[in-house]
Design a protein that fits this description.
Elements (H helix, E strand, L loop, with lengths): L3 E4 L5 H12 L6 H10 L4 E5 L8 E7 L5 E9 L8 H15 L4 E6 L4 H9 L3 E6 L9 E7 L3
Parallel strand pairs: 4-5
Antiparallel strand pairs: 1-2, 2-3, 3-4, 5-7, 6-7
The structure holds coenzyme A.
């Protein structure tokens, strides 16, 4: 199954909120943030729909940093029922191609060190481990910081 990956639009907002909630629960981004992200970085909020399907089953969100040439991936989620079918990889490839084309040269993200599925996905796309912060989001909330430098 090859998903259709495209820019999210305001019509996707309710489905994106449901997806965020299904994946991240109480730690979801609220809808008002997602809506404003679409306004700020319209090319960098991508959804994946199953071929022929209307509702997004996966999405990724990136933002530009104030540091020249740097972007951050802020969210990556595939609905639990749709995992392991290449949706995450398709979203990541398209997002990185878009970020490369926008002239960004360093893409960073954070991920829980025990999240081996996500770490592997990022490593396959060229991310390397840059640092580990044992209390990134507070006590006992460690994150790996990963970076992908644009291939020359
Ligand atoms: C990380 C995540 C976005 C990947 O999405 P995905 O659509 O499953 O990604 P892909 O299908 O492209 O690849 C997932 C990997 O998991 C494997 N996998 C297979 N079946 C799976 C299943 N039922 N569930 C999860 N992963 C599975 C895939 O084979 C693949 O690994 P491999 O290429 O080494 O074999 C998804 O697991 C997710 O939403 N996780 C929870 C949120 C999260 O951790 N986000 C990242 C925070 S930094």
């Amino acid at each position: 199954m090859k998903p259709v990956v495209e820019r999210a639009g305001p019509a996707d907002l309710a489905a994106l909120c449901e997806l965020e909630h299904a994946v991240f629960g109480a730690e979801s981004y609220p809808g008002f943030f997602l809506r404003q992200a679409m306004a700020l970085w319209p090319d960098w909020v991508l959804v994946a729909r199953p071929a022929g399907g209307a509702e997004p089953v996966g999405y990724m969100l990136a933002a530009k940093s104030a540091r020249e040439g740097e972007g951050w991936i802020l969210s990556a989620a595939t609905h639990p029922a749709w995992r392991g079918r290449g949706i995450g990889q398709a979203l990541l490839q398209q997002l990185l191609a878009t970020l490369d084309a926008a002239g960004l040269t360093e893409i960073r993200l954070t991920v829980h060190p025990a999240n081996t599925v996500a770490v592997r996905l990022y490593e396959r796309a060229g991310f390397v481990r840059e640092a580990r912060d044992g209390a990134y989001f507070g006590p006992d909330q460690p994150r790996l910081i990963m970076v992908r430098r644009k291939p020359v």
